[in-house]
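From the methods appendix. Each design record in this collection lists the tokenized structure first, followed by the designed amino acid sequence. Records were kept in a plain field format so they could be parsed without special tools. The example shown here is representative of the layout used throughout.

RECORD:
FOLD TOKENS (526 positions):
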């Protein structure tokens, strides 16, 4: 478990480092108003912004947005013709749009960063390139919502600023709509990370309220939780802000435990990779134990932000994925891991996480299978490094109840399996459990396991047994017998390939520690 005191100290350290890192870059905004008295502030064509309820709910501080000129919001626009030198749009400059030679066929993408970031970040360029490179996107335009002038501390001020920036972005989208003579915004897709996700919600809301237009899609990448959790829909991104809203949750821990994302399902479809809380390959332990001494700001930011950042890494990979990136509808992540949601049917919809999710959702919608006023929560497992995409198998292991197995007795250890397909391509080497597990003769275990995709379902399996003795646990002692386990059979059911395979060891031989055992279907006698 996380240590609450050390976690608090860690967060305080992070905030001090953030202030130090950004002190020379913070914009000092004019303050000619008495915030204690004033409840509404207006910004010409962008309208008025209130500080009354519901903007006070679950917020320790409450600010007005600062003026547009103080934030210097920029909108660099990229197409396949101008990948390196963008056209810089302004929220209310139609001439720039008219002279940009945009392809009215679209699609149009808007990408927004979050707190303490800017439109110059590498992840934004990577996502823009992936979108422009996608087959069929010859007419695509990618617009970056660069609000770095308004994303600096204090956090509460940045939270307030995105309300105004959302309206400004709605004006820009409306102007593109008018200049290009479009009939709808179905192929406009807003992609926002953290605070940028809620910015997208404000943009979608403003388009409906001011211009009677509805965005085709908003993707929220780990929408920020502080100041937004448990608030009314007006205050945060929700499914009413676009025709389709999909969310990837990757860091839904409490802030005191270095979590920044929301846990609540707020879209039409909410994806929870690895449970949506922490992500494999992100080393939270070093920081939650308070070990931050001597580390630079960038190192602290990378460690603490790793889970939060995975949401946009997953989405970028999903544009042209290395495997189907399927997620499965289930009651909970624990239920998913237990193998309770392994079939794609009307009770457990299967939808690819990320970019291509809308294609499947639309089919379900056209078939009358989903209610657009409700939510679908889906779960998936990923790898710890790129490429993150994995394929899922329900693995059923039956420990033999034979005379030999009973005589040998229970074993404590770790089983690992490697899948081999028809082309002799091998998957990665995956342990069924992270820690040693106690296996009794006759027991059946079921577990969901994720593997790197080889391109085909397996035809046989390589099984290994890792045994570690514990001086204080007599059940792990093996003085006269070889550490081994009698596996009667393994059954692997693929979600992505919709195939089953049952394999056994040759002549019912045990899996001996540190000796790879090949298990095939033809070795099974039943």
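DESIGN:
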């Amino acid at each position: 478990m996380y240590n609450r005191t050390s976690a608090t100290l860690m967060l305080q350290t992070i905030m001090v480092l953030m202030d130090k890192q950004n002190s020379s870059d913070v914009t000092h905004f004019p303050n000619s108003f008495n915030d204690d008295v004033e409840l509404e502030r207006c910004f010409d064509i962008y309208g008025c912004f209130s500080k009354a309820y519901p903007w006070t709910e679950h917020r320790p501080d409450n600010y007005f947005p600062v003026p547009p000129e103080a934030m210097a919001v920029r909108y660099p626009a990229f197409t396949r013709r101008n990948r390196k030198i963008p056209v810089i749009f302004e929220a209310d400059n139609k001439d720039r749009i008219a002279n940009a030679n945009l392809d009215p066929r679209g699609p149009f993408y808007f990408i927004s960063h979050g707190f303490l970031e800017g439109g110059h970040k590498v992840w934004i360029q990577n996502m823009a390139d992936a979108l422009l490179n996608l087959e069929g996107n010859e007419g695509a335009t990618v617009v970056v919502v660069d609000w770095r002038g308004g994303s600096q501390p204090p956090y509460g001020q940045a939270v307030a600023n995105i309300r105004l920036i959302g309206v400004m972005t709605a004006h820009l989208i409306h102007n593109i709509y008018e200049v290009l003579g479009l009939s709808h915004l179905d192929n406009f897709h807003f992609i926002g990370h953290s605070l940028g996700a809620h910015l997208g919600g404000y943009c979608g809301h403003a388009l409906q309220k001011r211009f009677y237009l509805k965005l085709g899609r908003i993707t929220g990448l780990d929408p920020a939780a502080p100041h937004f959790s448990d608030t009314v829909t007006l205050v945060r991104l929700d499914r009413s802000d676009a025709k389709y809203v999909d969310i990837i949750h990757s860091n839904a821990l409490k802030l005191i435990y270095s979590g920044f994302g929301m846990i609540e399902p707020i879209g039409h479809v909410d994806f929870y990779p690895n449970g949506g809380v922490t992500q494999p390959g992100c080393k939270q332990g070093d920081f939650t134990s308070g070990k931050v001494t001597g580390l630079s700001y960038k190192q602290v930011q990378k460690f603490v932000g790793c889970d939060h950042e995975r949401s946009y890494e997953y989405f970028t990979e999903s544009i042209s994925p290395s495997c189907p990136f399927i997620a499965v509808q289930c009651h909970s992540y624990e239920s998913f891991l237990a193998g309770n949601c392994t079939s794609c049917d009307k009770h457990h919809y299967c939808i690819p996480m990320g970019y291509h999710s809308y294609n499947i959702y639309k089919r379900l919608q056209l078939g009358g299978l989903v209610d657009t006023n409700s939510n679908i929560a889906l779960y998936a497992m990923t790898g710890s490094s790129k490429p993150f995409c994995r394929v899922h198998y329900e693995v059923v292991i039956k420990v033999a109840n034979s005379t030999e197995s009973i005589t040998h007795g229970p074993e404590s250890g770790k089983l690992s399996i490697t899948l081999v397909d028809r082309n002799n391509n091998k998957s990665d080497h995956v342990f069924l459990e992270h820690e040693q597990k106690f296996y009794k003769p006759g027991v059946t275990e079921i577990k969901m396991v994720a593997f790197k995709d080889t391109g085909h379902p397996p035809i046989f399996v390589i099984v290994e047994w890792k045994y570690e003795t514990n001086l204080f646990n007599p059940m792990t002692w093996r003085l006269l017998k070889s550490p081994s386990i009698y596996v009667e059979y393994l059954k692997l059911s693929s979600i992505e390939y919709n195939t089953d395979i049952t394999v056994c060891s040759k002549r019912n031989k045990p899996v001996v520690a540190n000796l790879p055992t090949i298990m095939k279907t033809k070795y099974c006698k039943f």
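APPENDIX NOTE: Confidence is low (pLDDT under 50) at residues 1-35, 285-297.
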